[in-house]
Predict the 3D structure of the following.
Amino acid sequence: MTRIDAKFAALKAENKKAFVAYVMAGDPDFDTSLEVVKGLPGAGVDVIELGLPFTDPMADGPTIQLAGQRALEGGMTLDRTLEIARRFREGDDTTPIVLMGYYNPIYSRGVDTFLVQAKEAGIDGLIVVDLPPEEDEELCIPAQAAGMNFIRLATPTTDDKRLPKVLQNTSGFVYYVSITGITGAAEASATDVGPEVARIKAATNLPIIVGFGVNSPDKAQAIASVADGCVVGSAIVKKLGDGSSPDEVLSFVKSLADGAHSA
Amino acid sequence: MSNDLFNSFMTGPDEKGRFGIYGGRFVSETLMPLILELEEEYEKAKTDQSFWDEMNHLWTHYVGRPSPLYFAEGLTAHLGGAKVYMKRDELNHTGAHKINNVLGQILLARRMGKTRIIAETGAGQHGVATATVCAKFGLKCVVYMGAHDVERQAPNVFRMRLLGAEVIPVTSGRGTLKDAMNDALRDWVTNVRDTFYCIGTVAGPHPYPAMVRDFQSIIGKEAKEQIMAAEGRLPDTIIAAIGGGSNAMGLFFPFLDDKEVSIIGVEAGGKGVDEKMEHCASLTGGRPGVLHGNRTYLLQDDDGQILEGYSISAGLDYPGIGPEHSWLHDTGRAQYVSVTDKEALEAFQLSCATEGIIPALEPCHALAHVTKIAPELPADHIIIMNMCGRGDKDIFTVARHLGFDMSGPEGRSVE
């Protein structure tokens, strides 16, 4: 059982929705980023999604693109991203960390080496945007064999015919992408998302967490109420980009977490 | 050789869209169902005679195919060695090979009921071809073009706008072809239901590399027939420039199983292929990675971050290369070399002076390599180089590099 599985089991026992927060590793610099990550559980975050910066984030809107650029310009690397997880783990052994990014930096490191290093750093799961089920042999299957969750994205274009394939090698939770589009663009609609979550739930026992287009405490509450929880990314990253202090960012995160938890 | 299926180079990609380890479908889940649908439609169209009848009709009457295979007598005499032929795809409607592929993709888009076409463009030739065919068929067209390229390819930007396309300058990254492709993918993932992504080169997720190759293979098919008619035998060497590699793949593919034909791809060496990385030679200076839906050779740093390429030619300014080229490189079936900006500019002037042909900067890279090897080869050695684009779009860039001021009515040298 990974930290992710344990966390969702605990939330289920409490009949509580999950709040997942995304931040880009190393944005705007290593120390600030580590301070924010360390503060997330205290602000009510159940699962941390740690962004691995990449030069060409094709599924991301301008907010996360710019965060990645800031991080890379500040000297962020795969090693330093894992170092943030490692330093976080020194003080927290229960909050799951999901590394989210694109395949090339992982492929460049070598999948086997990467998995050893990521696991050692305390990473519990992976979301790799450009690895659909058709490419499961690349990383998904080796990651699961290494005891890591591989969390798949399901989207509005994932029809019933395709859904079993998407769910087949997924573990930890299912990340439902609320819109067709990129991060930080359109707003999610609970009316649209509800039936989709029900459709996926009929096909799996995994928790369904909804992300993309969740940007306020009210929206977090509305979306979490029709799923097992929600993810906020761009809205938090935007705060950091605006030059807000870690405390200001964390108090915004707390308001989002409270929204999701009140669902 | 061509009957020996076990050793054929023409059977790829496999069912996973791979050429050896290259290619594949590295895209987000949102796009996956579309890519599968496209593959299905393309497989249907491929064996549908009515699809090819329509293509052939348009190629003949709209594009002006077949393009001539021209014996470059002046150039051959100047170089004093091998006999040089040019495949004249620069004479196509819109001035380059790009339209061969665009017609195929737009006919597919129409079959699939898509009403909005998006494209990325570097030099603007693919954007112009897409805008052209969209105008002809009354389809909405949006072209993503790096802001830097919008600036250096102004005539093509104006052409696209005249043809009714919306040109969106892309400012992310360094504002070149790679960044335009990122933004096109972001558009596609947002507008999946009505939009068809018309990719301009033999890259991207399966089935694009194979599909674009198949549409461009008309170049090689014609060249083969034409050289047999002119010389009664196959060429000894075929040469083409490579950015993503679609004109090259189009010329090479029909010759892959003709072992006696040596195949050379020419990458953009920019300011030189060295540690400064001011070039676009993915095969010579890169290593395998995953970007834009496929695994292929990429310019990248030690941490797997993608590097911006550099070339005088906007059409070659891309840090990757089509996956089939990566495979042909690894298997040794084709040889890949690079040529610098300076060498390409010299070839540009040589083509003007010896043949009265003003070439695009992209095929000048292929031509530059011809000028290096032809003098050492015997007179009965036949070379075909792909003259894949004309130079109208590049005269401002070339003028600047040659120190010629075009602002005055007479023009004057600024040196």
Summary: Chain B has a mean pLDDT of 94.
